[in-house]
Amino acid sequence: MFGLLMAGCDLSAQEAGEPDTLVLMNGRRLPIAAYNDTSFTDVWIKYDKNYFKRESRHLRKRRKEKDYFNTDILSAKAEIYPVIMKSSHRSRDEIFAIRKADGREKMFYYYDLDEGNYLEVEAMRAFVAGQGDAYAVVSGMRWFWAGLGVGTVGAFASRNSILALAVPPIFALSTKIPVIPIPEAATSQSRYRYNSDYAAGYETQARSKNFRQALKGSVMGVVLGWAAYALVDANF
């Protein structure tokens, strides 16, 4: 009975000192100390809840140096986030696979048109890799600053009209128009360099980031534009 209960539970990474890696469908990767999927619904995982915060700091530094996948480049600012282990559950639908510390892989994604899984496993692997690379490479900050300017000018020109509220969604939607370039340095695995599924995943994640940053920047711009107009109107 004990053996059956432990069939979907892996604590080997914890014992060896090397974590397994949870590969999410959005391309992000999370080191995990242990997991258990014996419930066949949600997957129990034990992980460092501050990992993504530290990784975000490291990614910013790697982007500045344009060496996106060099894990030796670390940001000292990440040290403000201590390692805090936490247990929680993840839906199986959110997980592509768990890559074991010893190189083995436990798959969660499977091809099934009825379930909406329209890509074969290897095609989805490329798609997920593309999303992961775009997350590491694309910051979307150009869209943020552009949105800040457009929002500010639009709100100021509207003379505090409520019509300025149309600027953020319209500007954010404009991120869907430009072609998303994939520089050679932005591909972590050369085998995906000319893979259409990889490119689709990269584009999906890049556009999502650009959209969010454009929306955030333009909303802040509208607020600044209204404030600037109110200040000018009150003094002149």
Main features:
236 residues, seven-stranded antiparallel sheet, 7 strands
Outline the structure in words:
The chain is an alpha+beta fold and 236 residues long. It folds into 2 domains: 118 residues, no CATH class; 99 residues, no CATH class. 44% of the residues lie in helices and 16% in strands. The chain contains 7 helices and 7 strands; from the N terminus they run αβαβββαβββαααα. Strands 1, 2, 3, 4, 5, 6 and 7 form a 7-stranded antiparallel β-sheet that branches. The chain is elongated and about 70 Å long.
Q: Which helices and strands, and how do they pair?
A:
Blueprint: H1 2-5, E1 9-10, H2 12-16, E2 20-24, E3 29-36, E4 42-48, H3 51-65, E5 85-91, E6 95-99, E7 105-107, H4 121-137, H5 141-157, H6 167-173, H7 196-235
Helix pairs in contact: 4-7, 5-6, 5-7, 6-7
* Overall mean confidence score, pLDDT: 90
The sequence of SSEs as H and E is HEHEEEHEEEHHHH
Distance between the termini: 81 Å
**Total helical segments:** 7
Secondary structure: number of strands: 7
Structural class: alpha+beta
What global shape is seen? elongated
Approximately what portion of the residues adopt beta-strand conformation? 15-25%
Largest sheet: 7 strands, antiparallel
Number of domains: 2
Give the low-confidence spans: 1-7, 11-16
Helix content: 40-55%
Rg calculated over all Cα atoms? 22 Å
